[in-house]
Amino acid sequence: MSLHYEISIKSPHKHLFSVKLTLKEPNPLGQAFKLPNWIPGSYLIRDFSKHIVSIHAESGGKDVPLRKTDKNNWIAHPCTHSISIEYDVYAFDLSVRSAYLTNERAFFNGTSVFLLPLGFEDEECELIINLPSNKEVLGQWQCATTMKPQKKSHSTEIYEADNYNELIDHPVEISNFTLFEFEANKIQHRMALTGTHSTDIGRLSSDLTSICQHHMDFFGGATPFDNYLFLTLVRSHGYGGLEHKKSTSLICSRSDLPVKGMTSIGADYTKFLALCSHEYFHAWWIKAIKPANFINLDYDRENYTEQLWIFEGFTSYYDELSLLRTNILTPDQYLSLFSKNVTKVQKSSGRMKQSIAESSFDAWTKFYQQDENAPNSIVSYYSKGALLAFVLDIDIRRNTDGDVSLDDIIKYIWENYKFDGLEDDTVKLVIEELTMLDYSDFFNSYVYGVKELPLSDSFHYVGVECTFKHSGLSSFGISTKESNGSSIVTHVFDSTSSQLGGLYVGDIIVTIDKLKVDFKDLEDCVGSKSVGDTIAVGFLRDDTLGEMIIKIIETDKTFCELSIQDKLDPETKNRQRRWFYR
Ligand code: ZN
Description:
The protein is built from 17 helices and 29 strands. With 582 residues, the chain is an alpha+beta fold. It folds into four domains: 3-175, Immunoglobulin-like (Sandwich), CATH 2.60.40.3650; 177-266, Orthogonal Bundle (Neutral Protease, domain 2), CATH 1.10.390.10; 285-464 and 565-582, Orthogonal Bundle (Neutral Protease, domain 2), CATH 1.10.390; 478-551, Pdz3 Domain. The strands form six sheets. The protein has an eight-stranded mixed beta sheet with strand order 5-4-8-2-1-12-15-14. Strands 23, 24, 25, 26, 27 and 28 form a six-stranded antiparallel beta sheet that branches. Strands 17-18-19-21-20 form a five-stranded mixed beta sheet, covered by helices on one side. Strand 4 and strand 5 (62-64) form a beta hairpin. Helix 6 (308-325) runs antiparallel to helix 7 (331-346), helix 6 (308-325) packs across helix 10 (383-399) and helix 7 crosses helix 10 (383-399). The longest helix has 18 residues, at 201-218. It is globular, with a radius of gyration of 26 Å.
């Protein structure tokens, strides 16, 4: 093997990994190297190279000059022997997207730590991980990853990757984690829980088994992996996940995990299971099958696609629906969860300005770089993508008398396109092929256009009542967060009482009708007002006291409630059963 990577824990307190890359036969004209600027699955230029310190190269015992050609590219002076590049990487990002090293754990994604020697993209490589030697400080750390293992000793683990893309798609967790295993379809699944927790492993393992089994069955039984690993970091507060080929990195809050004696399913545990479900679904739906132009990624720059609504939106639809189909949630619990997503989309006027195809394309600069005006200007390809998946699912069922559903479309795509990737029109063409209908209007209206989704009508078809009302601060038109007991305005929604009255993001609301108002009381104070009423709002802006009169105007009701309709006719009941349980 001509490519060797070696990573060591240099200093937990300085948060430094040291990395050595050795190349037996470098380009004799001068070997170039690069570090990715982004990590697949998270569409933002993150410039990981800014965390590289003390980089140098040597060959045959002599230093080789290394020149930086731009922020993430280097070229070494020509040399005839093997070349080694050594560098440190500062790692103190607690997210799932980068690398982290303290005396409690070491975690890294290859995109943050492994330089790519240009021209060697397809070469097999070896990775040596040197485990911490100061065990009196760090304890007995273990290593968890889905990279191909080769050898193991008490201080070193050796892995292999078929190529660079493979090398960077297996995150590595090294710490004193809790590891448990379960099987689904005879395939080994593991979860490593890092951090303080007192999880009911039996319950978690049983629920994960059901979810994994569901997804395997959904895609017809074949898996794109031979084993799967959930890497979960448990924190006091946190939430996040990133999909990989055979694994996922997750962050959750301690309260998201079930504890012994807990038998009900709360909102927190539901959120965690939906996250696991979401990332696991991705193993098929974006890791194995993906947009065609994601097959060869450019790690230097943004890689644009209009299809994130397909891959993230459909995944967001099925991550929750599968919790119903596995009986982890009851229909009422599922509909309650679904209604929250409907509210989230409907309360933001950005859905009327940006299509979900545009939202996908502009993920790099808009969705991943949201500012306070985001609800008024953009729409989420996750949230609206999930609603669109539902509307599309129902439309297909209705048009085919229940013979075809979105499940069939996805399964068909998985079976027929997994090696080619999807073009922008593939999903539409497959739907048209399987339904024998023209879906141009549907796509022009709801994917490439901003026509309001026929939600109530779609729910009605499966016997679910969808109603909208005002709730909380929605009729007033703001969202807030607490600041020293008062409410600080975080968003002002378009064409609402607050916006017309002149309330700005950052204003701290201190009085309503001359009386002091705390954060916890604002909702009641404002919610009790009716259309036509006026409210005197006292506020601090840049430490200066002001007052404005806000007139309550009529606004759209956006808070969604979903419930199963009473007295369903047998046909509707059957449609509902088939939607709920396939
Ligand atoms: Zn996702």
